């Protein structure tokens, strides 16, 4: 299970980086989104992975890490998701504005190949 | 006394936040009111920063436990001498930038003032926080506002370089998160003081992970601090930003340097056992390479805004190399240099725009967008920018530029020289014959030479040979802003003795982090009044 | 991309992170809508046959591939290393222990967000607010690329007077006609339901998965649906939202909740649970973090709506020459 998760993170991250390095604008945005998923999953995976142990305390179950998943990475990821959403939205809008002002679709302003 | 210091610590963060919220709610109409609120709030920030500095100098570090949870569980705000110093620098630069912006830039687009205040909040929070993830959040606050400020006014050069700036910083943020996660995974805590304590006890087979995490974190910070080869984004971005924004950005680069300094002092100090001094050679040689690249850039560029950008790179490299040397006297000299470099380069950015106005009409300069056609949706009124014209504008600009040159290049008699001299002296005495030491001294002198040559050349081109071009309009607010920064440098020169004493005390604190750690870990939370435990709700 | 997001969401849910799964899916919906809005202004892909792939292109591709594989591999290796170690002595058991007695809630993640690490959350909502303001300011001077100014092909080929299900949103007051009528009625009826769901999430967030973020995004999505089915003008005529005001109010609410604690002599953002026994309702426990969560909710609604409506307005505005003559300028959308 851990290996699968690690592979997923790697694939998402690699695909994200690949897309980010492409010249066309929409691919860059896709790449950034995938990269942010990869990073979020990575942070989440820092605490050990359990199924069926949500960090919602119930009385009677001792409050330690054997009975609940680690809540700290989860709160970090929540913050990261929201911040990532904001910056993705901003990036998209800046991309559109720059596209409109420069007239080419290439991030580095290269001569427009259609 | 300590209680009031603790209460004061949240003001640099909450005051800009509340101001920004109020400014947003005021809508887009009451421009005059918003300007006044902005400047007043920023000035209050300077006063608070100076007060914090006075307290910390007298009593030692101050700690504020946000949400009343003790370290290492809650988030702590810590003000030691270094943080207080950075707060004061931020306050001065931001006040001058705010004044400058009121002369015209603030009206070019909407929502300048709230974004300005949010930027201040991010900067102050980054300097005050003692928690690693909180540092990330405040970095993001700072960056989000900086994107907005950078793009303020639109136009192709700004938006184009803004895109690159945004992309590079998104990458740096992702790296920050990954490094942070690894560090948490290995050490189990996010509190900086606690990390310092736990680093020494990391088991041997985890050390590789620890160092990997730290290296990734460092990468993120060094991108921000513009170390070579990660600094290609800086010169275009800072050059395209509007003048007051660029002036404020001079502090942003120093946040990267501050973070490196703080974390390396805490985490990889002597007490870290086998992990001590990890990465110091990278800092040293990277810093030296940065100075070299910056000096080269200075010599080869003729545009004033790019000169200012390269000056930032040189100052950043100098600071990083000095941190890499890691002896108390070098660190003290570096802190003095940080002060003067930030103030000087900030003034340079403001001046650059004023000088570029020589020979062009003001209207054209301020709205350097492509001419808006009737189909663009501008409905902020393009008020004619009347103001009191400074009658001796060219003389003022010339004198200020000369002062800036002297400051940035490190020529006598101003504080730039004092800073360079103390750096040279401490490097010579501490590292006498090591290769790193010699290279550093050589590069310091070389960069001073390069700055002198390039600034003089630019100054001659813009100021001496103006021929019959019209004198620029310089509004009173802009002149006051530039003069304010330069005067603080002159004050720095006059009061070099007490400032150096303070810098030495700061360096001593940094090299011996036990006082910081103990203060943070020992601050107790205010006891809560007991409340009955609520019965847990049964979920359907 | 939507698929990847969905997979991430399922991963979170499977590995015991219900709050994260909720947040991920609502953020996913909003992001997808955002991208669809943005697609309007990107040019169509024209397939041409490139003469040859140059060596430079190939070298660049190779370098990119190397970087991508390196980054992905590095992440995977790190992640695997972290996953297979025993858990560290982390500070988390403290949070699990104290969430209910001191924090006043059983959902530890939410209690962390609004109590233990509330200082982080204040920064986070400030980021949202700042980005929304930036997007708005930038889009006020937006000039779309020349080839996208003309209306999409579907709208161009219709003569102006035809009565059809496919209407131009600029020229009609209510875009819910014809085959859009059924979805629009459902969407409009669902709006109050969505608001109730959001309120439910908001109020129960402290003890069950939910919280201010999810509630705010649910409300934003509900409003977005109205925009989608009814068109911009109809929605703005019927609902006077002022997104910047929501942002300002939210930030103030969050800051004031923190400052109230300071006034009482405690550090910033200290929470407290109020207990009262109301006559008909019985025992009521009100953590002060509820007000903080309310502030978070307001900022999330305001920021999301500001970003998306700023983009939506670009489609309603008249840009340059249109292929159809317009009788009157569409009214400027109010702030």
Notes on the structure:
The complex is a heterotrimer of chains A (114), B (540) and C (335). Chain A is mostly helical. Helix content of chain A is 62%, strand content 0%. The longest helix of chain A is centred in the C-terminal third of the chain and has 32 residues, at 71-102. The relative contact order of chain A is 0.13. Mean pLDDT of chain A is 77; it is low at 109-114. Chain B has a two-stranded antiparallel ribbon. The model of chain B is unreliable at 362-390 and 532-540 (pLDDT under 50). Helix content of chain B is 71%, strand content 1%. In chain B, helix 7 crosses helix 10, helix 13 packs antiparallel against helix 18 (435-464) and helix 16 (393-409) runs antiparallel to helix 18. With 335 residues, chain C is mainly alpha-helical. The two termini of chain C are 32 Å apart. In chain C, strand 1 and strand 2 form a beta hairpin. Chains in contact: A-B, A-C, B-C.
Largest interface: A-C, 78 and 90 residues
Domain module tally of chain B: 1
Helical segment tally of chain C? 13
Structural class of chain B: mainly alpha
Mean pLDDT of chain B, rounded to whole units? 83
Distance between the termini of chain B: 51 Å
Low-confidence stretches of chain C: 319-335
Q: Could you state the oligomeric state of the chains shown?
A: heterotrimer
Strand order of the largest sheet of chain B: 1-2
Instruction: Indicate the proportion of strand residues of chain B.
Output: under 5%
Order of helices and strands of chain C: HHHHHHHHHHHHEEH
Residue share in helices of chain C?
A: 55-70%
Spatial order of the strands in the main sheet of chain C?
1-2
């Amino acid at each position: 299970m851990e290996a699968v998760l690690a592979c997923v993170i790697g694939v998402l991250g690699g695909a994200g980086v690949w897309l980010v390095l492409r010249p066309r604008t929409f691919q860059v945005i896709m790449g950034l989104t995938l990269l942010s998923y990869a990073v979020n999953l990575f942070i989440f995976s820092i605490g050990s992975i359990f199924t069926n142990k949500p960090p919602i305390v119930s009385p009677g179950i001792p409050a330690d890490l054997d009975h609940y998943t680690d809540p700290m990475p989860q709160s970090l990821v929540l913050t990261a998701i929201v911040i990532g959403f904001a910056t993705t939205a901003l990036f998209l809008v800046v991309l559109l504005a720059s596209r409109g002002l420069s007239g080419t679709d290439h991030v580095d302003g290269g001569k427009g190949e259609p | 006394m300590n209680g009031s210091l603790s209460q004061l610590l949240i003001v640099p963060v909450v005051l800009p936040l509340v101001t920004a919220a109020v400014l947003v709610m005021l809508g887009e109409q009451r421009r005059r009111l918003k300007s006044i609120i902005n400047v007043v709030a920023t000035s209050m920030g300077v006063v608070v920063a100076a007060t914090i500095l006075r307290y910390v100098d007298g009593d030692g570090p101050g700690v504020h436990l946000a949400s009343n949870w003790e370290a290492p569980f809650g988030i702590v705000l810590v003000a030691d001498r270094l943080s207080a110093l950075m707060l004061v620098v931020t306050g001065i630069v931001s006040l001058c930038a705010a004044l400058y912006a009121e002369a015209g830039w603030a009206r070019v687009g909407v929502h300048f003032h709230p974004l300005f205040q949010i930027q201040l909040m991010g900067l102050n929070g980054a300097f005050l926080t003692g928690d690693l993830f909180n540092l990330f959040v405040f970095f993001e606050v700072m960056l989000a506002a900086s994107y907005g400020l950078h793009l303020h006014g639109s136009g192709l050069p700004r938006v184009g370089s803004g895109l690159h700036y945004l992309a590079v910083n998104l990458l740096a943020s992702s790296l920050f998160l990954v490094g942070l996660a690894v560090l948490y995974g290995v050490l189990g805590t996010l509190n900086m003081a606690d990390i310092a304590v736990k680093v020494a006890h990391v088991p041997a087979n985890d050390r590789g992970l620890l160092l990997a995490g730290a290296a990734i974190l460092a990468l993120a910070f060094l991108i921000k601090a513009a170390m070579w080869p990660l600094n290609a984004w800086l010169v275009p971005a800072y050059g395209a930003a509007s003048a007051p924004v660029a002036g404020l950005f001079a502090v942003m680069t120093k946040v990267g340097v501050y973070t490196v300094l703080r974390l390396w002092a805490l985490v990889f100090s002597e007490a870290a056992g086998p992990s001590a001094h990890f990465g110091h050679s990278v800092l040293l040689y990277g810093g030296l390479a940065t100075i070299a690249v910056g000096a080269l850039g200075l010599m080869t560029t003729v545009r004033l805004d790019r000169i200012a950008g390269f000056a930032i790179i040189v100052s950043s490299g100098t600071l990083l190399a000095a941190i890499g040397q890691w002896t108390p006297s070098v660190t003290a000299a570096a802190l003095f240099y940080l002060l003067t470099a930030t103030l000087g380069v900030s003034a340079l950015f403001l001046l650059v725009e004023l000088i570029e106005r020589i020979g062009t009409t003001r209207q054209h300069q301020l709205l350097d967008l492509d001419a808006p056609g009737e189909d663009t949706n501008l409905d902020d009124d393009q008020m004619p920018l009347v103001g009191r014209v400074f009658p001796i504008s060219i003389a003022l600009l010339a004198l200020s530029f000369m002062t800036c040159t002297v400051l940035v290049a490190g020529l006598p008699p101003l504080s730039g020289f004092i800073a360079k001299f103390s750096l040279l002296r401490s490097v010579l005495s501490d590292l006498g014959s090591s290769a790193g030491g010699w290279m550093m001294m050589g590069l310091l002198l070389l960069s001073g030479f390069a700055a002198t040559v390039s600034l003089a050349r630019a100054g001659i081109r813009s100021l001496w040979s103006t021929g019959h071009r019209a004198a620029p309009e310089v509004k009173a607010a802009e002149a006051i802003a530039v003069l304010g920064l330069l005067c603080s440098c002159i004050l720095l020169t006059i009061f070099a003795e007490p400032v150096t004493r303070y810098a030495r005390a700061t360096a001593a604190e940094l090299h011996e982090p036990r006082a910081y750690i103990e203060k943070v870990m020992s601050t107790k939370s205010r006891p809560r009044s007991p409340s009955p435990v609520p019965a847990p709700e049964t979920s359907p | 991309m939507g698929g990847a997001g969905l997979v991430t969401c399922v991963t979170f849910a499977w590995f015991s992170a219900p709050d994260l799964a909720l947040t991920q899916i609502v953020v996913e919906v909003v992001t997808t809508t955002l991208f669809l809005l943005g697609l309007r202004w990107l040019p169509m892909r024209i397939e041409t046959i490139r003469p040859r792939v140059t060596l430079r292109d190939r070298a660049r591709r190779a370098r990119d591939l190397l970087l991508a594989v390196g980054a992905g591999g590095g992440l995977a290796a790190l992640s695997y290393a972290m996953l297979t170690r025993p858990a560290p002595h982390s500070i988390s058991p403290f949070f699990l222990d104290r969430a209910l007695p001191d924090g006043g809630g059983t959902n530890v993640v939410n209690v962390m967000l609004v109590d233990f690490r509330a200082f982080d959350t204040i920064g986070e909502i400030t980021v949202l607010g700042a980005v929304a303001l930036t997007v708005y300011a930038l889009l006020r001077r937006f000039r779309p690329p020349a080839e996208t100014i003309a209306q999409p092909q579907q709208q161009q080929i219709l003569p102006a007077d035809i009565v059809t299900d496919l209407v131009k949103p600029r020229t009609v007051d209510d875009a819910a006609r014809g085959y859009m009528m059924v979805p629009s009625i459902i969407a409009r009826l669902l709006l109050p339901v969505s608001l109730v769901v959001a309120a439910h999430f908001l109020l129960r967030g402290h003890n069950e998965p939910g919280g201010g973020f999810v509630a705010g995004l649910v409300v934003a999505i509900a409003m977005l649906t109205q925009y989608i089915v009814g068109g911009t003008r109809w929605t703005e005529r019927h609902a006077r939202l002022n997104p910047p005001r929501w942002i300002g109010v939210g930030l103030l609410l969050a800051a004031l909740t923190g400052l109230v604690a300071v006034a009482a002599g405690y550090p910033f953002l200290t929470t407290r649970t109020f207990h009262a026994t109301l006559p008909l309702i019985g025992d009521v426990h009100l953590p002060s973090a509820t007000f903080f969560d309310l502030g978070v909710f307001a900022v999330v609604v305001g920021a999301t709506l500001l970003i998306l409506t700023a983009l939506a307005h670009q489609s309603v505005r008249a840009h340059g020459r249109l292929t159809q003559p317009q009788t009157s300028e569409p009214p400027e959308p109010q702030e």
